[in-house]
Amino acid sequence: MIQRGAKYTWRFDPPDRALAEKIREATGLSTVMASVLVSRGVTSAEGAAAHVRADLETLPDVHLLPDADRVVERVGRALEHGEAITVHGHDDADGVTAATIMIEALTQLGASVSSYVPDRRTEGHGLNRAELDGLAARGVTLVVTVDSCVSDRDAIRYGNGLGIDTIVTDHHEIPPELPPAAAIVNAKLPETDYPYRYLAGVGVSYRVSELLLAELAGAHGAATSSRPWYGARWRDEALALAAIGSIADKVPMTFDNRVIVTAGLAAMPRTERPGLRALLEETRLWGREVDENDVRDSIGPAFGRVSDGKGGNTALALLLSLDIETARGTARELVDGRGAWRSMAQAAWRQVRAGRPKASHAPVEIVESSVRIEVLGYVTSRLSEELRKPVIVLSNLNGDRMGEARGPGGFNLVDAFNSMAELFLGYGGHPRAAGFTIRNENVPAFRERMIEYAAEHPPEPRPRAIDAELPLVGATSEVGREFDSLAPFGQGNPRPVLVARGTGAEQYEAALAAGLRFSTPVRLGRTPVDLVYRLRYEGARAFASVLDAIATGGSGRAGGTATDGRE
């Protein structure tokens, strides 16, 4: 059922009442909680219990990952022959945490392992020939990528010619043609038995590292006394990093991701890793429980894209640090650098906003800019949000162009780029956020084809979802506390959205008298409305945040109602 509110269009498909009641009886959950779970795809009491617990034991068999056997075979051969291995990372929170986990797993197996994180200011996205030339000169024969490179067909072929095999671990969208890698681990591959597609790059890295340690530690295990988080503590320390990367990358907070993040957040306050402890201290989070909002607002942004231009990365050095005092200095540098980045980003935003055409009816906005590469994604995101359509911002990169692209829901940037893949030097990403490098001479053709594609594939945003019905008088602190068991919240797993049918002043006053509090006052007219709201538990009280109001009857705009708009 589709309904139009004062602010948004809503979809509410009433959940199966019989199934919800069966779940309620078997689990002891409230009726509304059981209804929410059914609305979100739970089909059994066992599934409901597993969803609430979010246990690591519910993760699928890691051997189901695509090319799992090839990864074990190739890494095992490298260990047996003492080959030099390099972990190729990506310069954001997801990529840095993924690289840390992989480096440490290989180190525990006794590998000779180094790292390389390209500087996007000078090297762009993914593997590049200069990097591969340098690795070959140092005797590297195996590269393991994390959070990157599933689209780097030409670079991986070039590396093969230098005697370098590549294992790709990635979570970005699959290109029309796969690279000639020794193995490709990506749960989005069309022919895979792994049941969950939406792991973050760090989630893939964690699971592959888990696989390697399980299969190869018996034959190749190294001494672990040098780092207290190796051996038995490795899992908890790796999960803490996986939680950071997953939250920062805004992957769906469902199934495997939610399990990994739940475990990682629980492990974070107990970390023995100097770098993570220093970062928690610097962001004033040490000594207390950490939730997804702390990671999203404070920890994740500290993983700034700070490179030395030679394959090194400051955030990676922090996480690999063995000395707490050194780590504290590096953490302070990262947090201070984030402040400088914000100033740069705001200046770049003013520059781009002032320089773009004031009115454009094109289905996609393509902007040429001189803003620095470090803030290109930020200004692209803001411009797309403001214009409510796909936006691409191009900037200079070594005489060519680097582009960042962002789009609204219902528009797939990767599909667009796949349709013109031959124009790019390299590209990749997600449906709503992608990037590429392109030669100058191909920009006019790209502009023409992108506008044509966007005109033929206009965004089709989906209505927002309501999970269950609950009158305001039923919105108690007990229900709010029960909803907290669905945390951590995020994309695909937001705090439950409820609707209170036929709400008027009398129902509102009765809910206030029963103890319900509202984030902002709600004004109701004479005609009852269907209030759409969220419920949270805080300080032993239930608080409602009203999102919208739907005129009774289900269509048209509701009048006389104020909503606080918080989501």
Quick check: average pLDDT?
92
Q: What distance separates the N and C termini? A: 22 Å
Proportion of residues in helical segments: 40-55%
Number of structurally distinct domains: 3
CATH topology of the largest domain: inorganic pyrophosphatase (n-terminal core)
Tell me the radius of gyration: 25 Å
What fraction strand? 15-25%
Low-confidence stretches: 555-567
Shape: globular
Which CATH architecture of the largest domain is right? Alpha-Beta Complex
Structure description:
The protein is built from 19 helices and 18 strands. The chain is an alpha/beta fold and 567 residues long. The strands form 4 sheets. The protein has a 5-stranded parallel beta sheet, sandwiched between helices. Strand 8, helix 15 and strand 9 form a beta-alpha-beta unit.
